[in-house]
Automatic annotation (TrEMBL):
Gene: xpt
GO biological processes: purine ribonucleoside salvage; xanthine metabolic process; XMP salvage
Name by which UniProt lists this protein: Xanthine phosphoribosyltransferase
Organism in which the protein naturally occurs: Oceanobacillus piezotolerans
GO molecular function: xanthine phosphoribosyltransferase activity
Primary localization class, coarse: cytoplasm
EC number: 2.4.2.22
Compartments it resides in: Cytoplasm
Pfam families: Pribosyltran (PF00156)
């Protein structure tokens, strides 16, 4: 998606050979217009997949998910990373090791929001080693729901998550795939 790639080039900060900071439009401040375009792109790609729910992880997955929800006319459910006084019983939980925070969180969602009747699109801001993706997939499996695939805003193609998911036959649609962050420069994978 060209508008997203332009934004990454203009405003992304390469923190190391493996970490990209995009807090001016995705991870802290949110560019609503760009997120709307992201939502339109995901909904276009998945419009024939019979999606009934979008599943994401708080907090950075919520904006692109809600924009996609608006277009597809289905709700977004976000997994919580922290325990909550109001989220106690009848949960699906999974463990996720965070690439950026280097800590393991137990993520949870209420069982009432995803059921065996659902066809789920999982959306996230980044795909790196795939830990978040596996945790969310685990929750979809526990619910007995069908997985339509993944919508990823930024995939770091030099890490293993995308490859592993695709090798398992899972559909992964990434709007920008980064090939390298070496020499403080963002290089995108060429689109076929
Ligand atoms: P994974 O679980 O695939 O290893 O990492 C994905 C999660 O880690 C995403 O939900 C995202 O929050 C975070 N993440 C991974 N790599 C980056 C990165 O380069 N920049 C930012 N801002 N977040 C990242």
């Amino acid at each position: 998606m060209q508008a997203l790639k332009n934004k990454i080039i203009e405003e992304g900060n390469v923190l190391s050979n493996s970490v990209l900071k995009v807090d001016s439009f995705l991870n802290h401040q949110i560019d609503a217009e760009l997120m709307q375009q992201v939502g339109e792109e995901f909904s276009e790609r998945f419009k024939d997949a019979g999606i009934t729910k979008i599943l994401t992880l708080e907090s950075s997955g919520i904006a692109p998910s809600v924009m996609t929800s608006l277009k597809l006319g289905v709700p977004t459910v976000f997994a919580r990373k922290r325990k909550s006084l109001t989220l106690i019983d009848n949960l699906y939980t999974a463990k996720v090791h965070s690439f950026t925070k280097q800590e393991t969180n137990e993520i949870s969602i209420s069982q009432k929001f995803i059921t065996a009747e659902d066809t789920v699109l999982i959306i996230d801001d980044f795909l790196a080693n795939g830990q978040a993706a596996l945790g969310l997939m685990d929750i979809v499996e526990q619910a007995g729901a069908s997985l339509a695939g993944f919508g990823i805003v930024i995939e770091k193609g030099f890490q293993t998550g995308g490859k592993e998911l695709r090798e398992r036959g899972i559909r992964v649609e990434s709007l920008a795939i980064i090939e390298s962050l070496e020499n403080e420069k963002v290089t995108f994978k060429e689109e076929k």
